[in-house]
Amino acid sequence: MPRTLGIDPGTITIDVCGLDAGDVYLDRSIPTAQAVADVPAFIALLRDAGASLIAGPSGYGLPLTPVERATETDLRLAYLSATDDHGGIGGLRTLARAMRDAHLPVLFTPGVVHLTSVPASRKVNRVDMGTADKVCAAALGLYDQARRRRCAYAEVSFVLLELGGAFSAAIAVHEGRIVDGLGGTAGPMGARAAGALDGEVAFLAGTIDKATLFGGGAASIIGSSDHLADHLAAPRTPRDQVARDALIESAVKAVAALCTVVPHPHEILLSGRLTHADAIGRELRRRLSPFAPVRRLEGFAHTAKEAAQGAALLADGLAGGPNEPLVNALGVREASGTILDHLFVISPDAARRRLGID
Asked: N or C: which end of the chain has fewer CB within 10 A?
């Protein structure tokens, strides 16, 4: 039986979940700033875990790519960061290089846009349909619903709504496969991020950098990211109320949109940091219950977030473990292409130049 790890490279924390013969043997959450600031310590944690395969951290995703084969172009595509842009998740590129230099058995996994189960028409002018960690969270949802309903993966159907520490996203799963997604920078408002931008707002901004994409959300409305979940759960000021209403309504609209491609989901699954706030969870369940039964995606680990658990499942299946049917159901091995392949507003070549790729 393989021993595997899954990594979720979140904006606030990097979570690590390890599986050994189906049992959790590593369950950690480390502040992202700490992991990036002390890369050797994080590498030591992974090395000491003794995993035969590690899934992630994959950023916006790549078709299955071992870290030792990842080129500088692959890393630019995975983390969508230009040489002069240090905002966003650009720091994870340094972490990935360190994993490569340490010869760790890391495998980059795909984002939603790489999956062949998503029709090409839904990918037009889209990059962020759901980052690699959102695919992993959906994998946990698939695993969980199949067991709860005692059904085959092909009978699983849900919409996953994730409200993370910075971004929100929604993923549609139909008959065991991901068929659509609204990713953080193209989806609902987030705790810190604005989500999908009005094109005219982008024009007025003049220049959109990574820092811009990580702002404009609920924290910007309130004026602070301190104790954000408390402000949203129990609004104290008019701005708190506007932020709460905007965040929740944006999330509900995202789920409603995806119900057009999954017309009869068995469930709406909630995941992510903000859904742990009882008041927010209750309001989401109230607003989303007309579409399908709503529940939190609990998973099997106590500390690591849902995406890290899903990544561990995928790593197990990719290593030939008992979760290989899950990997086969999601079509992860068939993932292909790049995140730039479906652009028409600008050309893929122009996008590559923006990233510093010749």
From this structure: C
Tokens 């790549």 identify what position? 62
Can you tell me the mean pLDDT for 91-98?
A: 84
Rounded to 5 degrees, φ, ψ at 31 are: -55, 130
Domain 3-354, CATH class in plain words: alpha beta
SS in 3 state form for 112-133? HHHCCCCCHHHHCCCCCCCCHH
Q: Do 117 and 142 contact (CB within 8 A), yes or no?
A: no
Q: Which residue has the higher pLDDT, 339 or 95?
A: 339
Ramachandran sector of residue 125 (left: φ over 0; alpha: ψ -120 to 50; beta: rest):
left
pTM of the entire structure?
A: 0.95
Give me the residue spans of the domains in the chain.
Answer: 3-354
Radius of gyration of the chain (CA): 19
Among 167-171, 192-196, 204-208, 278-282, which is the least confidently predicted range? 204-208
Backbone angles phi, psi at 5, to 5 degrees: -125, 150
Provide the pLDDT for residue 87: 47
Distance CA 61, CA 138 (A): 14
What are the C-alpha distances in Å from 158 to residues 173, 181, 216, 291, 328?
Answer: 5, 12, 29, 10, 18
Read off the pLDDT of residues 52-64 as tens digits, 9 standing for 90 and up.
Answer: 999 989 999 999 9
In degrees, rounded to 5, the angle at the alpha carbon of residue 252 between the alpha carbons of residues 225 and 262 is: 135
Tokens 């910007």 correspond to 220
